[in-house]
Design a protein that fits this description.
This protein has about 70 residues and is α+β, with helices and mostly antiparallel strands. A hairpin with a 4-residue loop joins strand 2 and strand 3.
């Protein structure tokens, strides 16, 4: 079950945003749940993930994995 409490922070745009604005935004909803959305379609549904899984994904991206 996802914890859909009030967000802990505002939406944060990816630091790797393209010049044309193609990027994702992330928002922490609790210490256990983050939401990710397409910045071009902010009113559409967001993808929700555990903070642990999101941190693992970001770590892999920073290492250049997977390819």
């Amino acid at each position: 079950m996802l914890d859909r409490q009030a967000p802990l922070a505002n939406w944060t745009k990816s630091s790797y945003s393209a010049v044309n604005g193609d990027c994702v935004e992330v928002r922490a909803y609790s210490r256990q749940v983050v939401a990710v959305r397409d910045s071009k379609n902010p009113h559409k549904s967001a993808f929700h993930s555990s903070t642990e899984a999101w941190s693992s994904f970001v770590g892999l991206v920073r290492q250049g994995l997977p390819r």
